[in-house]
Design a protein that fits this description.
The chain contains 9 helices and 13 strands. It is of the alpha+beta class. It has a 9-stranded mixed beta sheet with strand order 4-3-2-6-5-1-11-12-13. Bound molecules: glycine (GLY).
Length: about 325
């Protein structure tokens, strides 16, 4: 069996490309890197890679991570600027015994020495979003933070190897140097070929409070189906946060186990996922939260898919 599951509709083209490798017996590391690069390269996704929205100083600072579930190797970069594919830099770092997580200038120096492609990641469209948001904050006293649609993936190849990876520009208008859950092992991602892999999207500050990707992998290791593991972990963390702090940020998770079974859970409306397995063509599902805390999903309609792209590519009215 092989398969990939990813957060958000934006990942479907990526997992389609990744699945081409997996169906030929390709490696889960190559497939997940290929898939995430596809999302990083697409200029109309506002929260990952090229076209990602900037911090409050109008700089695009990117976070990414990669984990190999066979060796438990981890590589991560945080607050890196001006490189095209942070996930590839993270994967390259995963081969290092030490210094495998680098931030800001240190990450950029490593990427430069390794010959990774440099790119100005701040697009004109992202600048327009920034100007619009600055105006809105002044006029309507809106909170600057919003938008945290990290791409996170879990992957299984025919050899049984599992991987997890993430890539994000983090919160729009974040403070310079702010890092969320995405490059943090156990919070934004975790992979263990003996138990399964999981990844998160949502408010990093709250996802990190539950080390939630690790928690889901742990629950799968105890025998839970990925669906039950995702629901259990998300509902528990959501309840704990509400009890102790009066509110919970957005928490959305995906997972796959060693058999290619998968699961999803969220505490928000409007979450979508992209899935492909040996027996399922690349498919986008819209996730519904039921009153009892369970999550169900339905295939996105053609109309929804069309509308999604139109909205992403619509002109920005400043
Ligand atoms: N989940 C992405 C972030 O908070 O940066």
């Amino acid at each position: 069996m092989w398969g990939m599951i990813a957060t958000w509709r934006m990942a479907v083209e990526g997992i389609t490309k990744g699945s081409e490798l997996l169906k030929e017996g390709g490696d889960a590391g190559d497939a997940i890197e290929t898939a995430i690069r596809e999302v990083e390269d697409f200029p109309y996704y506002k929260s990952v890679g090229y076209g990602g929205l900037p911090n409050e100083e109008m700089e695009v600072e990117l976070d990414a991570a990669y984990m190999d579930g066979n060796t438990l190797d981890i590589g991560a970069v945080a607050a890196i600027k001006d490189f095209a594919n942070p996930v590839s830099i993270a994967r390259s770092l995963s081969h290092e015994k030490v210094n495998c997580m680098l931030v800001a200038e240190g990450a950029e120096k490593f990427a430069h020495k390794q010959g990774f492609e440099r790119k100005n990641m701040l697009t004109d469209r992202a600048k327009a979003h920034y100007r619009k948001r600055v105006k809105e904050i002044k006029q309507q006293e809106l909170k600057p933070y919003s938008g945290h649609d990290t791409v996170g993936m879990a992957c299984l190849d025919v050899s049984g190897k599992m991987t997890a990876a993430t890539s994000t520009s983090g919160l729009f208008m974040k403070k310079k140097g702010r890092v969320g859950d995405s490059p943090i092992t156990g919070s934004g991602f975790y992979a263990d070929s003996k138990r399964g892999a999981a990844s998160a999207t949502g408010l990093g500050e709250d996802l990190m409070k539950g080390c939630i990707s690790y928690e889901i992998v742990r629950l799968m290791g105890e025998g839970m189906h990925p669906q039950e593991a995702c629901e259990t972990a998300v509902n528990r963390l959501d309840a704990e946060l509400r009890e102790r702090r009066g509110e919970a940020g957005d928490l959305s998770l995906i997972a796959m186990n060693t058999k290619g079974e998968w699961g999803v859970a969220t505490n928000i409306d409007g979450f979508s996922i992209a899935v492909v397995t040996e027996t399922l063509e690349p498919t986008v599902y819209l996730v519904n939260r039921e009153a009892d805390g369970r999550c169900t999903y339905e295939k996105a309609s053609d109309e929804w898919m069309e509308n999604y792209m139109k909205t992403r590519m619509a002109p920005i009215e400043e």
